[in-house]
Amino acid sequence: MYMKSSILGTVCACALAVFVTPATAVTINYSNTAGSSINLDPADGCGGGGSIGCFSFSTGNSIQITSGSASGFSGGIEGLFGVGAITASGSLETANVTNTGTLNIFDGSATLTADLNWIDIATFGTAGSLNTTGTANLSNIAYSGGNGDLLALVNLGGGINTASFQFTSPATLTDLFTTSTTVTSTSFSGSITAVPVPAAVWLFGSGLLGLVGIARRKKA
Length: 220
What we know:
Structural class: alpha+beta
Shape: elongated
Strand content: 35-45%
Number of domains: 1
Oligomer: single chain
Number of helices: 4
Distance between the termini: 50 Å
Strand order of the largest sheet: 12-9-8-5-4-1-15-13-11-10-7-6-3-2-14
Order of helices and strands: HEEEEEEEEEEEEHEHEEH
Helix content: 25-40%
């Protein structure tokens, strides 16, 4: 009986550790720098692989860190990302994203680099989102500097990058990629969370539940 109780206590402690981890993770917030934007292009196939369109970020220093010990650092998101077939659920429209890009953050002397794969893109009302499910999408992270927040990304081995973009008037993915014939550019902001793999899986589940909740409220 004592052995069973000890085993159960160990299992509960392990489960608690997994669920507590996201609360202790380092989060780095960022916004677009003056004049930079996310550019949504409806050109067929511009993202490769039969995509219906693509998006990219202004080249150069397009982001500025706004929180934590890395506040004030600049960086960029490079790459051309393809947008796949659109799925609609009421006012919520989502699509898978293809291609791999690069995230870089410069601390004044050293640059953090990471491979970046956006998981999905979505629009809801006047707002658009990237990586709505909160899945780990930063890998191969390298950094030789000494900033604590950036080192957290390296030490934990991965991260979750999410972003949002805004419109003054509502625009759906259908409007942006299958109806429009011109590039739409707008401001954006986001956050980078340094998390180990178990925490990334937990957050992925939380993101899915959030999307299901949104869809159900719109149908009600």
